[in-house]
From TrEMBL:
The gene is ndk. The keyword Cytoplasm applies. Pfam families: NDK. Gene3D superfamilies: Nucleoside diphosphate kinase-like domain. GO terms for cellular component: cytoplasm. Its cofactor is Mg(2+). It is found in: Cytoplasm. It comes from the Bacteria. Belongs to the NDK family. This is Nucleoside diphosphate kinase. The lineage of its organism: Bacteria, Pseudomonadati, Pseudomonadota, Gammaproteobacteria, Alteromonadales. It is an enzyme of class 2 (transferase).
Length: 143
């Protein structure tokens, strides 16, 4: 299996509820290794740039307002098939549709405030990791 990297955000709702550690535990239990991590409070410009692909969608303004409403935790995860493995433990975008035991089922309240983000492809992951981390900030595991 391929070792991949993916990008994760613990969103403002989950940070506010002190669920960072509980969500990190989900990553580690799934075999995903944290190779870079920091807490940041996005500016409007940073949030708009990160979600540029959604700029024409009706929910864009609400999404940017939410993502700038408080600190977020951003991390790069590494592991076997990391992009898909991470999306699987995240669950569906709408927590009402998320499978039991997934992060969004257990920590999210609504589609607008859905606890966490995960890259949707290897290409997205490369762009998103680089949006937040320099090469020097990534610490690949040797064991
Ligand atoms: P994410 O990017 O946050 O991991 O979520 P996703 O791939 O599952 O969903 P995506 O289509 O990329 O949408 C990004 C975020 O926008 C909000 N959203 N709201 N009201 C709506 O219909 C709607 N659709 C999407 C969600 O917060 C979603 O996570
Ligand atoms: Mg997405």
């Amino acid at each position: 299996m391929a070792i991949e990297r993916t990008f994760s955000i613990i969103k403002p709702d989950a940070v506010a509820k002190n669920n960072i550690g509980a969500i990190y535990n989900r990553f580690e239990t799934a075999g995903l290794k944290i190779i870079a991590s920091k807490i940041v409070h996005l500016s409007k410009e940073q949030a708009e740039g990160f979600y540029a692909e959604h700029s024409e969608r009706p929910f864009f303004g609400a999404l940017v307002a939410f993502m700038t409403s408080g600190p977020i935790m951003v991390q790069t995860l590494e592991g076997e098939n990391a992009v898909l493995a991470h999306r699987e433990i995240l669950g569906a975008t709408n927590p009402a549709d998320a499978a039991p035991g997934t992060i969004r089922a257990d920590f999210a309240e609504s589609i607008d405030e859905n606890a966490a983000h995960g890259s949707d492809s290897v290409e997205s992951a490369q762009r998103e990791v680089a949006y937040f981390f320099s090469t020097e900030e990534l610490c690949p595991r040797t064991r």
